[in-house]
Amino acid sequence: MLAPHPFGYEITESSLIETFSGFRLWEDRYRQLVMLAKALPPLDAALKTPSIELSGCENRVWLGYERLENGGIHFYGDSEGRIVKGLLAVLLTAVEGKTPQEILNRDPLALFETLQLREQLSSSRASGLAALSQGVQNIARTCL
C-alpha cells in the first residue's frame, strides 16, 4: 500500500466523534486538528507530483489514491499547512477504504458537521476543504 496512515483504521469516525464530543471550545478542536495532522505521516517527496496537487487550497495539498483488491480506494495525501493537514486527516478517516459508490452516496464532509469543525473555518480554509471534498469525489468517479 502506498503511503499508509492510521485514518479509517486505528483512527475511525466513531473514535473522532467520541474525542471531539468532549470539546466545547473551538481552541480545543483546533488543537485536536493539529494532533491529527501530526498523526498523518509526511508524504514521500516522490509522490508529491503535480498530477495529485489540488488547486483551490490556501496551502499546497496533495491527494492521491490507489485501488484496493476489495474494490475500495486507499487515499493518501499531505499538506504544507498543519490545519489543512488536520482537515485532510479527518477527510481520510471518512473515506478511506470505501468503494467509489459509497463515497459518492455520502457527503464526504458530513463528518466535519458532526465534529462541529466547519463553522469556525476561515473562508480560505473552507474553500480548501471544499477542494479536498471535490478531489475525493472526482477520484471516486474516476474509479467507477
From TrEMBL:
It comes from the Bacteria. Pfam families: SufE. The active site is at residue 57. Residues 17-137 form the Fe-S metabolism associated domain. PANTHER family: SUFE-LIKE PROTEIN 2, CHLOROPLASTIC (PTHR43597:SF5), SULFUR ACCEPTOR PROTEIN CSDE (PTHR43597). Belongs to the SufE family. This is Cysteine desulfurase, sulfur acceptor subunit CsdE.
